[in-house]
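Researcher: Hi, I'm a grad student and pretty new to this. My advisor asked me to get structures for two proteins we've been looking at. I'm not sure of the right format, so I'll just paste the first sequence and hope you can take it from there.
Model: That works fine. Here's the first sequence with its structure tokens right after it:
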Amino acid sequence: MLALIIFDLDGVIVSTDRFHYEAWKKLSDDNGLEFNEEVNQLLRGVSRSESLKIILEKNNRIIEAPEFNAMLEKKNRIYRDKLQDLTEADILPGVITLLEDINKNNLLTAVGSSSKNTPLILKRIGLDKSFDTVVDGNSIRKSKPDPEVFIKCAQQLKTNPGDCVVYEDAAAGIEAALAAGMVAIGVGENELPGAHRMAKTLKSESCSKIITTYTRVLGRGPA
């Protein structure tokens, strides 16, 4: 029975794309690396470590572990500084209304994100107390597309993976949700392979729509 709705963070609840881009761009410029929008698109839904590997690979650059780790730390410092500008006004359209609708229907909610900055971001936008659980990059060993983050959300709320629906805006996240045995709803303008349904934003979403999608895919309604 449907019991838990899991939300990815960046691109679903809030958008910090511009901050990520600016941080990676500055890091790349400071280290003589080429970085542009095309490369940036490859980083969607990917961990910080994997993102840097992609940038280095695109530049045919090989570096030792100490330098690699130093670059990761520098990127995160730049990014976290930029996050101080985040406010409740940055919450994406439809998020608050959908959360209220889900709560009225007595379903659980969670955030499942690979970002280690999830607690800071949720606090900056005033949603740090709005979910039944939060699982982020600080409590997982494997990032998306590995399903660990979503499976942990279900485990923490004593819910079966098959009783969960995930909202995701990245291909890696959709892959992770499917691997976990969950229903996956893609968010954004571009079609995401494997998603059971797409939603341009959460503005047109409702608990009724979630239940309809879940029932269509798995044939089971809410508890």
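Researcher: Oh nice, that was easy. Here's the second one.
Model: And its structure:
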Amino acid sequence: MMRIKQSVHTALLLGFILLVAALLRFYQLGAVPSGLQKDEVSFLVNTMALKATGRDEDNRAHPLYLQSIIDPKPALISYLQIPSIALFGENTFAARFPVVMAGLLSLVTVFFFIKEVLDELYAFIVTGILAISPWHIVASRATYEVIFSFLFSVLTLHLFIRIVRSSHRSWWEVACGICAFILAVYLYHSTKIFLPSSLVLSYFIYRPQKEKFPSKKTIGFLLVSFCAVLFFTFFVKDATKRFASVGLFADPSPMIIANEQGTDATGKLPLLYMRAYYNKVVVYGKAFLENYLSYFDPRLYFFQIAQPVRYQIPLQGVLYIVELFLFFIGLIVALTRPKLRQKFLLFWGIFLIAPIPAALTTIEVPSMIRSFPIILSFAVCIATGLIWIVQLRPVWLKRLGLVVVSVGYAYCIVFFLGQFFVQQPSYQSWYRNVADEHMAALVKKYQSSYSSILVTTYYAEPYLYLVRSHAISVQQLQASYPARMQKQFSLANITFVPGECDVVPDYHTLMVTYSGCRFSYLYKIIDTASYDDGTPAYYFVIYSPPPDIRTPDKQAHKI
């Protein structure tokens, strides 16, 4: 009877935490973050295509990866969006609904994972911290691959540790763990390094002391998992394209600097010196180390410097300021108590491993999304700080500590809600693509009034937003591949041109140009697509000369 009551209390408390988490994630989901940025809209467009025809935007049947924006993305996200848009329509809420559900499920997996490796008290506190965490909230609303991969990564670690601790686990549990691992490494590139490393570390931490050799289930789990990593790294061509474009070794600037230094030093320094210091290993090693160490700067987590900018909240870090003090209290407590130090070995490992794949890239560094699993280590340390305060003696000191922490959290949460739901939508909105959505809606509005429309590709990939607004049909999009890989191409009555200010002297053509263009008296701006802060992004221009002007042949030209 006591166990039943305890289970009911556990379910009720966990349910309450999930309810709070759901409110923070579903509230204004269609409006915050503002607009669907390019990665989001590419998933939605492919979802529309798969739902309508069973093929992606490039007319490939049931793909494993999507090629949208020349950046392979896991097609599973689009498959999961199909029921969502069938229920809610082709809108922003529907596109983000599966992501929020993944975020909520990740809280459930975190609860049982922490309960397995620590205890139930830690599980509740850590889950509660993540439920109200700005970092987890942002990731659960817009970072599609990241939060799905995090969900399956935590599930993998949980099941693997259970298998390592007891050889009596069923093969079904092993199979579920392997499936979770495969999904995690398929969904996000960083996981290919983070998760295998964490599994190996988990084995050495949690294996029974009497066990000289790993069990068959453990060996099978690790063997299949590492084969999956090799498969997605070396045999699936699409899986490595992203790293090839943003990876550390794709950036030539470190070697350019080294070559300049070597050229300047020729004849001034010994050849042995130049070979020892101006080589790829040293140059890229320093670049990696610089990136890696940036993830241990507290400013990254508690102040507004984490990349990418499109996910930043003005004047708000990814963690609350009050958690800065709790984190350091928890860190000191964990390091000074031998039992906790031993219990936290896995989380020390995650703290050191998670930034490694993030440090191997050059774009948007330091990144809040590529190092996302490190949030587990922060949450455990913050929970330790809270537990230390709860255990303070005398009682008046404990009460004082709890009051200070409660007031601190309340102050920080209210500030976060205001910054996120009110300020963030219009903050540096040019880093998102709200103006592209406005442009697409206006093109749809004017489309029937003009025989042809010219749209600049100055902002890149405007066709995705035009498909979403149904100015271009899914079938027209699929039929245009690979022709639309050219600099200039046409879809429906819309021609996409690389020039930002191209106009033609034709009464029947609507021209959508970059807002920085200036036009002569022969042309008239009839509308503007702007960002949420009012900054113009696109001008809608028509040929409208004075009555006494007669223009010769239609010909594109810049003003």
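Researcher: Is there anything I should tell my advisor about the second?
Model: You could mention this: Residues 431-558 form one domain.
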